[in-house]
Design goal:
single chain, 257 residues, elongated
C-alpha cells in the first residue's frame, strides 16, 4: 500500500484541539469534583474496629521482633479468656451490624456524584468528538503493530487495508483520556480528580467496599482465632553474636591488607 501523507491542517484543526479539549475537560472535572465533594462523617466505632484489627495483624506478622514479655502482654490484651478485647467484643451486644449501603441516602448521593463527574463527561465529549472529528487520521505510532490493534486505534475509520499503526481521531481522544495522568499529576498534584482512570477505580473500589462491609463480630472472632494460633519465636536470637563475629572478620580482613 502506498504511503499516506496527512494534511498539515489536521494537526491544527484535529490533533491539537482533541488534546486541548481533553485536558480542559479534566481540569474542569477536577474542580467540579471539589465543589460537589461533601465532608465524610467518620464513624468512630468503625475506625476503632479497623485500627484494632490492624494492630492485631501487625502483632501477628512482626511480633517476632519484640521481646517475649511484650508479645505475650499484647496477646493477653487481645485474647484473654476473661477480659481480652476480642473476647469482650464477641460477647458484647453493643456491636453494630453493618448497614446496607443501598439504604444509605448519602452513599447513593456519592454514587450519583461520581457518575455525574466521571462517566457523563466522557460520554458527552466522546460523542461530540466522534461527530465533529469523525473519519480523520491524526497520527501514526512509530513502530509496527499487528492487526489486533486496528479495532482499538482506528475507531470510526473502517479501512481493512489501512496500516494498524495509524490512529483515528476517536481513538486519539481515548488515548488522551487515559494518557494525561502524568500531566494532571504535575499540574494538580498527586491526588486529583482529573485522572479518569483513578476516578473510575476509586469509584468502583469504594462501591465494592461499601457493598462488602464485614460483620464486626465475625471479624473479631476470625482475628481472635488467628492470634490464638500464632506462636512466638524470637527472630533476633543470636543477632548480637553474629554482629560481633562479623565485625571481627571485617577488622581481621582490614589488618591483613
Amino acid at each position: 500500500m502506498a504511503e499516506i501523507l496527512l494534511d498539515p491542517d489536521i494537526r491544527i484543526w484535529v490533533f491539537l484541539p482533541i488534546v486541548i479539549i481533553t485536558f480542559l475537560v479534566g481540569i474542569i472535572r477536577h474542580y467540579v469534583s471539589l465543589i460537589l465533594q461533601s465532608d465524610k462523617v467518620v464513624d468512630s466505632k468503625a475506625l476503632q474496629t479497623s485500627q484494632t484489627l490492624m494492630r492485631s495483624r501487625i502483632l501477628r506478622e512482626n511480633g517476632k521482633f519484640i521481646p517475649a514479655k511484650a508479645f505475650h502482654s499484647r496477646k493477653t490484651y487481645f485474647n484473654d479468656k476473661d477480659r481480652g478485647y476480642f473476647t469482650l467484643k464477641q460477647n458484647s451486644t453493643e456491636t453494630q451490624q453493618p448497614k446496607n449501603p443501598m439504604s444509605d441516602p448519602s452513599m447513593m448521593t456519592e454514587m450519583m456524584k461520581g457518575n455525574l463527574t466521571n462517566m457523563l463527561p466522557m460520554i458527552v465529549i466522546g460523542g461530540w468528538i466522534n461527530w465533529a472529528f469523525s473519519g480523520f487520521l491524526t497520527t501514526k505510532v512509530p513502530f509496527p503493530l499487528t492487526l489486533r490493534f486496528k479495532e482499538m486505534l482506528q475507531r470510526g475509520v473502517a479501512l481493512p487495508s489501512l496500516d494498524a499503526a495509524w490512529v483515528s481521531s476517536v481513538s486519539w481522544y481515548f488515548l488522551n483520556v487515559f494518557g494525561l495522568r502524568s500531566v494532571y499529576t504535575l499540574i494538580l498534584g498527586q491526588d486529583n480528580a482529573a485522572d479518569q482512570t483513578r476516578a473510575m477505580q476509586d469509584q468502583f473500589t469504594g462501591n465494592a467496599a461499601a457493598m462488602s462491609q464485614q460483620d464486626p463480630n465475625k471479624a473479631f472472632k476470625a482475628e481472635w482465632e488467628a492470634l490464638e494460633m500464632c506462636s512466638y519465636k524470637w527472630a533476633l536470637e543470636g543477632a548480637d553474636k553474629e554482629l560481633f563475629l562479623g565485625q571481627q572478620k571485617i577488622v581481621g580482613t582490614t589488618t591483613l591488607q
